[in-house]
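pls read this stuff:
=====
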Amino acid sequence: MNMNVESPKAMVNIPMTRMLLLCGEGAQPSEVEPLVEFSPRIVVSPLDPARLKEQLSGGSADLVVVNLARLSEAELSVLDDIRALAGHLPLIVISPQLSPEETRRLFSLDLQDWLPKPLEAGDLIDSIQKAMRSRPVTTNRVHAVISAVGGAGATTLAVSMADLAATHFVKKHGSVALFDLDFALGDCGYTINLMNDFNLGSVASAPRRVDSEFIRVIQKKHPNGFFLYSFKRPELNTELNGYELVLRMLDAVSVEHDHTFLDIPYYETEWREDVFSAVNSFTLVSELHLPAIKHTLDLIERIRALRGPEVPVHVVFNKHQTRLFGQQISKRRLKELFEETPFHFVPQAQGQISQATDRGVLPSDVSRRSGFLKALTKYMKAVQMSVEVSS
């Protein structure tokens, strides 16, 4: 029995979970809510017995928890209704000890779990974790675009990858988002003239306000079809509740969209490791010189230690320039250094990128047939991102 729940970091293995809580006669929400308050990824909403059909329809919940003071016929009737309306949702029931007959009747409802009172925080968290692991895997994908060193151009690549995904790979068959995790600058918004002046500090003190409705309020949509979440809020890097707020936003955004691209800065943040633990693929943006290569190798080692050898990791050498007598560091030497990690090249496009940045538009708005975009499209196909996006 797990009775030690000390902080939100103990809950990093729980995905964003929308939990509906119904309390029977004589049972109180205060018996349950404090037991999950340590997790930044569990959003609790009350379930009203009079509004079961409305609240259980439309995919607005991930599981149902029912807290009972007794198991009467009225409570069993409500449980029957929940099962009839939402048989696909995990159902966890909390109650005092039951007689053998009550236990038999309860488990005939195909429960995910039954937890006897008195209840410890670890009991409920463990049950929720098991329920979330057993639910069908979603097709939502999260792609991390990480700057291995400052100035490598990861923001430009992340913006263009979201653009290509929305205009070439997804189109009308899915939703694409770009989430800028560099709160110090918020450069994604500035780059394409889609700034967001929403004050995230106004919700930092109450991160549990973050849900799908909140995400829809703060999102910006580019004419090319992708959604942007980019905020210049440097204080989030040191805000007391910044860690929880960012994790809740990440989870809510990834649930909202089929494909989410993350623009991740090179510097360390409190949530960096949590993000690395959850994404589906890694694109490490680097440059072709020794210091950048060393930083990239360090980053690969960190990701492999955290995620193992199976997670897709690719290196993109940005701003690549071909030379008459070959490049300073040969492909053969790069293969020796990176071993099993594939690497790709995206050519220098200073004129196109500078013009796009000065005008506040996408590189594709300047030239759709540039070598830069052709190489980036080729990269996305090579790593089978187009297959994933089309799924």
Notes: The chain has 17 helices and 13 strands.
